[in-house]
User: What shape does this take?
Amino acid sequence: MTRRIADDDRGRAEAIDVLRRGGIVAIPTDTVYGLAAALDVPGAIDRLFDAKGRPPDRAIAVLLADLEQAESLGALSPAARTLGAAFWPGGLTLVVAQRAERPLPAELTGGRATIGIRVPDHPAPRAIAAALGPLPTTSANLSGEPELRDAAEIEARFGDRIDLILDGGPAPGGRPSTVVDVSSDLPRVLREGAVPAEAVESRLRDMGR
Assistant: This one.
């Protein structure tokens, strides 16, 4: 069966080691648990999709340590920088254009020229991303099933599909992240969630958008 360890400094160090070796780790976040893989380890993202049973044409988001790391991954427009500075860490996912000099795996992006990025309001994914790099993450549930919100549920449902569970107690749940497309000159709220759309639009108005 999958190992389950506490979400502390030792547990996070072990999670980083598992990810570096191509493993799949369940991690707590500020909403629900996520399944994470290392971006730059060959085959790891494929394993993540297989574990979840997710169709290969459905892109997943990347969790980040901070806004500076976001700059290294995506081409951030002024609107993206403004919204990231205002609402990160927190429940905001920005859809940004990929950097031409850093193409991302098609299995991560679903073949799109954009990528969803977020700095979560939870120390575990930020610490792991700071050590390992941008962290492809999808919700910890089998595709089409309800999201799982504690380590015991994940252990029972996934069995040996994943390698490690970082147990941070029950996830807080709540609304999913608000998703804003800032990949063009006309930012658009694609999904309203934890951050009110009016708050996003107010920030954009302040910068003349």
